[in-house]
């Protein structure tokens, strides 16, 4: 069982991560190629994304043949405009101190992915005023 992280080039951005499980069974690989995968984008601070519990969740998600898990790490969020972020079908965003929820909201408004956890509510919940 090997869990690999492969750099993915997407719209001029080559520092997002595509996660996958390597499988040496060629027959299973041919079956996987017969249908379109759903891309799941996960964005938060690196310390949350690469925490031990999240790595276990990611490992299990990557075992699903129909999911293409794409991590949108800190450096993408900070350095690039949302137009250059990888395009995903489903978006999962976790608030963390220092994370730009405003950019995540712009991304959702621009690309209109299915949002698993409501980003607008996260902004309200973490506003201490």
TrEMBL record:
Q: Which reaction does it catalyse?
A: 5-diphospho-1D-myo-inositol 1,2,3,4,6-pentakisphosphate + ATP + H(+) = 1,5-bis(diphospho)-1D-myo-inositol 2,3,4,6-tetrakisphosphate + ADP; 1D-myo-inositol hexakisphosphate + ATP = 1-diphospho-1D-myo-inositol 2,3,4,5,6-pentakisphosphate + ADP
Single Gene Ontology BP term? inositol phosphate biosynthetic process
Matching entries from Pfam families are given as: PPIP5K2_N
Example GO molecular function: inositol hexakisphosphate kinase activity
User: Which UniProt keywords are listed?
Assistant: Kinase, Transferase
Domain VIP1 N-terminal: start-end pairs: 38-126
Protein name as it appears in the record:
Inositol hexakisphosphate and diphosphoinositol-pentakisphosphate kinase 1 (Trinotate prediction)
Q: Which organism is it from?
A: Myxobolus squamalis
User: What does the organism's lineage look like at the top?
Assistant: Eukaryota, Metazoa, Cnidaria, Myxozoa, Myxosporea
């Amino acid at each position: 069982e090997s869990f690999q992280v492969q750099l993915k080039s997407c719209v001029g951005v080559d520092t997002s991560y595509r996660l996958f499980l390597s499988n040496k069974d060629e027959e299973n690989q041919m079956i996987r190629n017969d249908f379109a995968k759903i891309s799941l984008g996960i964005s938060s601070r690196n310390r949350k994304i690469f925490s031990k519990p999240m790595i276990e969740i990611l490992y299990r998600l990557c075992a699903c043949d129909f999911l293409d898990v794409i991590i949108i790490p800190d450096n993408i969020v900070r350095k690039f405009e949302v137009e250059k972020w990888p395009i995903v079908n489903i978006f999962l965003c976790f608030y963390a101190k220092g994370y730009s929820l405003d950019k995540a909201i712009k991304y959702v408004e621009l690309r209109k992915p299915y949002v698993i956890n409501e980003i607008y509510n996260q902004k309200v919940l973490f506003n201490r005023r």
